[in-house]
Amino acid sequence: MTLRRTGLVALTLSWLAAGCAPSPRSHAAHEAGHGPRGHRFERAAEWTAVFDDPSRDEWQRPRDVVAALGLAEGMTVADVGAGTGYFEPWLSRAVGERGVVLAVDVEPDMVRHLGERARREGLTRVRALLSSPDDPNLAPASVDRVLVVDTWHHVPDRPAFAARLRDALRPDGRILVVDFRPDARRGPPAHHRLSAAEIARDLESAGLVAREVGPALPEQAMVLGQLSPAQQ
Ligand SMILES: C[S@@+](CC[C@H](N)C(=O)[O-])C[C@H]1O[C@@H](n2cnc3c(N)ncnc32)[C@H](O)[C@@H]1O
After folding, report:
1. Quick one: DSSP state of residue 135?
2. Is the pTM of this model over 0.85?
3. Ligand 1 center to 61 CA (angstroms)
């Protein structure tokens, strides 16, 4: 690990774990990561300590997030921008033996890590899939639920991406987008944060019916998008 990369991971760790406001210097470092070509998460091993930090559960509240998705046994759920797989055990439990969890990411090393983690932890329903920044690589009408956590602000063309996710939904399908609010005490630089209203607009631009849902998380907005009756 290079010194610069070690520093970036340490900074992110301190923001996520301790919830500190970024210093001007750390802000500049993270800004560089969120440049015009997007933020890269190339080496999964470096991000496990951040995304799978056990203290994350306190503010991430995975039980509430999964409850807001409205999963049932046997469903297919796609976790788009799955990262190191923080949500995969939760999603696997919710869809049960007959369900499928598609763990999708744009980083090849995250996808490798997701597959290995699933094998190691006996998450037999998880399938790791490589996608591209503007295409989640999901077949039309193939999923019941889509979860997108802390990833929406990385998507280059959100309305177009929302339309691709919409096309992947089965009738009665739902998309839950969870991302850091402008008033969050942790997360990406301020101008990358998104209000619930902005996320809802992105989903509505794809013709979905969108609304903020609860219970309210301490740092993130949760917005649920559903197919309109005309799209079912
Ligand atoms: C901040 S991490 C969040 C990971 C995970 N959702 C979690 O909550 O722990 C963002 C992840 O989204 C991935 N990503 C970024 N842009 C993406 C896109 N357009 N489509 C799919 N994945 C994307 C990154 O490679 C990274 O693994």
Report:
1. B
2. yes
3. 18
